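FAQ: What does a ligand-bound record look like?

Like this one, built around 3-methyl-2-oxobutanoic acid:
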Amino acid sequence: MLKLNYKKLLIKKNKIPITCLTAYSKPLANILDGKIDLILIGDSLGTTLYGMQNTRGVTIEMMKNHGKAVVLNTKFSMTIIDMPYNTYRNKKEALKNALDILAFTKADFIKIETDEKNIDIVEHLTKNKIKVVSHIGVTPQKFSNFSRIKSVGKNINEKNNLFNLAKKLESAGSKMIVLECIGIDTSKKITSNLSIPTIGIGSSKYCDGQVLVIDDILNFNSNSKKPKFIKNYINIEKNIDKAVQRFAKEVINRNFPSKKYSYKI
Ligand code: KIV
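The answer part, i.e. the structure of the complex:
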């Protein structure tokens, strides 16, 4: 198997849906590699791994370390890494930090949350040979309280704004656009009018691909309230719970470690 490249991803548009999941560590990168087209080292690691209330506390150092662990263990899929909050407020800051993150991690794409105010940053990074993925619709870095997140693109104004934004981001050089929590008809219109792939999260099956946070499909953090678009594919917590209980019982009963798990001398 050869490593996926952008040319092959583009061929998938309008033909084969593109798959994307997050990973923040070596074991998960190893599992996803080659089975999923794109592995996203998302700043969602702030809430899923570090237990933060939102993604604003995520640092460049965190992204670099998790990013490197994932990219080093990804041979076939392509990788996307998020720029954290407040690290791309102007062209100079964005370029310096994007180069730093990419030089350290060697990820294929950098993702930034975009709106009308930072299209120039996409253009600037692109001019400097950085492959940018834009993220529109619900952009989590704008929220300090995730329970306030609602879908967007409900009225005609919002729909037109999202469509125009997507078109401008494509012209600015974006290689892909993540559409988060955008209504069906707007996602469909954006996807069919762009020549770059759209990757949806809570934005209908009419996007060119789909992304979810891996912790959500595995049902980690099962006690926290999840948005409507999350599908849980396995209850991994239940299996971990079983293993933990068996280990504790065996230790308490002095059944572990038995001879098999001990050194003779
Ligand atoms: O950080 C992340 O995991 C993301 C996805 C939700 C698209 O940006």
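Follow-up question: can I read anything off the structure? Yes, for example: The radius of gyration is 20 Å.
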